[in-house]
Design goal:
This protein has 148 residues and is of the alpha+beta class. Helices cover 30% and strands 38% of the residues. It has a seven-stranded mixed sheet with strand order 1-2-3-4-5-7-6, with helices on both faces. Helix 1 packs across helix 2.
């Protein structure tokens, strides 16, 4: 497991994982490219043997009290191995370093493994957004954690 800051050079690898992980509602390459260079974002990649096997992103404006986990995704073969947890913890540390006191996220209601990860890291459900994920009509579970 080698987690590092993502760069624009990682875009193709990130998009391959994005499209495989979220086939019906993947971000566009243009949107992801903008995230990778934004001062308000912090994206990570997880590499194994020089190959990107996962990525994660945070939206956190320096000095703001809140931040948002934008995404965490791994190649299917690497899910459940602790890599997502490691990236999540790294994003939470970055949010804290940028001054955030609370971090929010949305998770698909049909993704119990991701929801379980967030619950185990101290997130709590604070609401639902009905039919948020389109075109699948899947609810978003809105979650929040207070940073120490």
């Amino acid at each position: 497991m080698a987690i590092r800051t993502a760069t624009s050079a990682d875009l193709d690898a990130i998009m391959a994982i994005e499209n495989a992980s979220f086939p019906s509602d993947a971000w566009s390459s243009t949107a992801m490219a903008a995230e990778l260079v934004s001062d308000y974002s912090h994206y990570l990649v997880d590499e194994e043997d020089g190959r990107v096997v996962g990525y994660a992103g945070l939206r956190a404006i320096r000095g703001n009290a809140d931040a948002d986990i934008q995404t965490i995704a791994l190649i299917e073969a690497h899910r459940g191995s602790g890599r997502g947890r490691a990236m999540l913890r790294a994003l939470l540390a970055e949010a804290s370093a940028r001054g955030a006191r609370e971090v929010f996220l949305e998770v698909r209601a049909d993704n119990p493994s991701a929801e379980g990860l967030y619950l185990s890291e101290g997130f709590e459900e604070i609401g639902r957004r009905p039919r948020y994920y389109q075109p699948d009509d899947v609810d978003a579970i809105v979650m929040k954690v207070k940073l120490r």
